[in-house]
Amino acid sequence: MEYQPSYNYQFGSLPDATQSSEKALMWSHTQYMTESGYSTQAPSISSMDSYMNTDSQKTDATAPQPVQQQQVAAAESVQPPPEQEEDNAVANWINYQDNSEMALKAIPDLLKLLIDEDLVVVQQAAILLNQMARMEGPRQALIQTSNAVQCLVDCLNTTADLETARSLVGALYGISTQKQSGTQAIVNSKALQPLVKMLSAPMDTIVSYAITTLHNVLLDCGDKVKMLLRKMGMIHQMIPLLNHGQNVKFLSIVVDCLQLLAFGNSEAKQVILELGGTQLIVTLLMNQSNQYHKLLLNLTRLLKVLSVCANNKQALVNLNTMQTLSLMINSQKSADILQNCLIILRNLSDAATRVNGLEQLVQNLLNLLSQIASQNQENSVTLMTLTAGILSNLTCNNENNKKAALRANGVQVLFKIVQQNVAAGKSTLIEPCLCAIRHITNRYSDYLLAQEQVRSLQGIPLLTQLASIQPRAWGCVKALLGIVRNLCNNSLNSAQLKQNCVIEKLMQILYDAYTEINVKTNNGAQVVSVVKVDDVNLMDIVELSSTCLLMLAKEHTNQIIMKDLDCIGFFVQMFFSPLSQIQKSAASLLAELSANRECAVVIEAQSGLQQFVQANFCNQFGQLKSIAELGSAGNSAHASVILQHVTTLMQRLQEHKSVHRNASFSGNFAAPQAEQFGHPMYFNQQFPSDVTFNPSGFF
């Protein structure tokens, strides 16, 4: 990014007014000046406090007023001849300030005075032009006058006088309040660069005028103007302004300008971080958590933009931004600010899975979730979805957060949300809730207590109900299978799982996923490892559902149920698939079921199984290949695992044949001598790491 260096203007001192030319007083020496609307007793204002309208996004015409004592003094000093009044367009406008026609006549004379050699003349002309830019009719006349705004900019570029600069920037501010036409006139007159330079001026009022004018331009103009302002170094000039005392209205505009420049631009976000802006913004958030609404709203909007940047995200986590937001969410009455806080937390949460000290945040989020669910607000689904997503990420691989969620009745709160929204089919809300439950019921010391709560809350019937919903919301199905997998690992859940026909539900999910994969791969003609639907890999669904069935198949009664449901025939069909991931899942299930004699008989009776094994897993001597032989054939990474399961299957079938003398296979399937294969055991094992929930469509 190009960056223009900061300009610190060295303004000269104001010369003695008594030495100025008489033309400086030509239009100010009138007896009625003191009665006109211009020469009121309005004081000079040097701060932003009195000119920002916090009820409107665009700053209105209540900006700081210019110093007017010079004009009043001049007005009282000399009495002009009466015959000059009719010929003096400037004096006529002063007398009738709301008259656009008189303003139009006066503008050319005032613009000529801006290039006068006498500083007092220039200063007085600038004051009047500033006043003119604050009135609707005269402002329109000023905008419509050819080169009028350009003359203001030219004078601003050359003046070394603070008061003149203040009046000129004030006039540009007034013009910027005229939506579209005014802001476009400022852009066309190349006023952006001098306005950016004025952000480092040594007078607060000039800085206030400049930032407010630029803010109005940013709100009205498009991406090209934003790009120009970035190249002009506007961000570099604004970061120091974040230390601008306690003027919350001024800070609110600075923060909003940063948000407008950073939105959708990764380079701008990085510049803010490198210049220390991110830390200053978090400090402001900490100091303003219960104060000025507009500043707090703009701070959260800016942090929402920064929190999607990887580098800023980690910096925000390190700066304890999440702890600060935790204090705000339960006491925040503004729906907009609350939603912004949740979006920020949602964006940061996947980078904070290993961060300690967030237990209070977890508790606050669960309290908020219960509160929102009971209020049934207009945007309650959005807020609950964000909250559940944060909880899902924070409970991922973090034992302290899992324990905090369990202590705060997290299982009960989350299941209640799921139950309330099942009928409506709100999958975007149900999915993160299920993900959080999946994490709380696995991989930490209290997971058995969490699973006990699932049983006591009648969570298993609810899960099987979810497993029956059509059409499939695969994101919810994947999260659901993760919970079922956790429950299958605990024999205390077996009775309820069996009562709720979990095997039938799992088989239907497996069949649906397998069918969808075949449709998308032309029955395996396209050999792929990823088949995505709704951003979910259906291969993961096959693996998860098969794992659950495999764990259930350890029990004899479940083996008989699978046999009676003709699951074996379907598993053999999967085993024939050219897709290695599906073949691996099927082989593991067949190997497990083959331990049961009745199931083994059914497996042996499956048409084509013998020929398939001989063609794909046996060498020329009719023996099962070793891993070395299989690897030399260039098979997939899953091939060795598949061979292990096939070896187990063949060994068990051979054992049953030896005992009962009713062989159905004629080949000699001797196990290889060089390798011994054991079957993996799944009981009482912890499963792979939790997966962070990251749905598409946020910020």
Q: What's the helical proportion of residues?
A: 55-70%
Biggest sheet descriptor: 2 strands, antiparallel
CATH superfamily of the domain at 1-231: Leucine-rich Repeat Variant
Distance between the ends: 25 Å
Strand content: under 5%
Strands, total number:
2
What is the strand arrangement across the widest sheet? 1-2
CATH class of the domain at 1-231: Mainly Alpha
Radius of gyration: 38 Å
Tell me the structural class.
mainly alpha
Q: Remind me, CATH topology of the domain at 1-231?
A: Leucine-rich Repeat Variant
Q: How many helices in DSSP terms?
A: 37
Write down the overall mean pLDDT: 82
CATH architecture of the domain at 1-231: Alpha Horseshoe
Q: pLDDT under 50 segments (min length 5)?
A: 1-57, 59-63, 65-87, 662-699
Region (Disordered): 38-86
GO molecular function: cadherin binding
GO biological process, one term: cell adhesion
Organism: Brachionus plicatilis
Detailed description of the structure:
It is a single chain. With 699 residues, this protein is an all-alpha fold. Among the domains are: 1-231, Leucine-rich Repeat Variant (Alpha Horseshoe); 233-349, Alpha Horseshoe (Leucine-rich Repeat Variant). The protein has 37 helices and two strands. The protein has helices spanning 69-75, 89-95, 100-113, 119-132, 136-144, 148-158, 162-176, 181-188, 192-197, 204-220, 223-231, 234-238, 248-262, 266-274, 277-287, 293-306, 310-318, 321-329, 335-349, 359-375, 380-394, 399-407, 410-422, 427-440, 447-456, 459-466, 474-488, 494-499, 502-521, 538-552, 556-564, 567-575, 580-593, 597-604, 609-617, 627-632, 639-660; strands at 532-533, 536-537. A hairpin with a 2-residue loop joins strand 1 (532-533) and strand 2 (536-537). Residues 1-57, 59-63, 65-87 and 662-699 have low confidence and may be disordered.
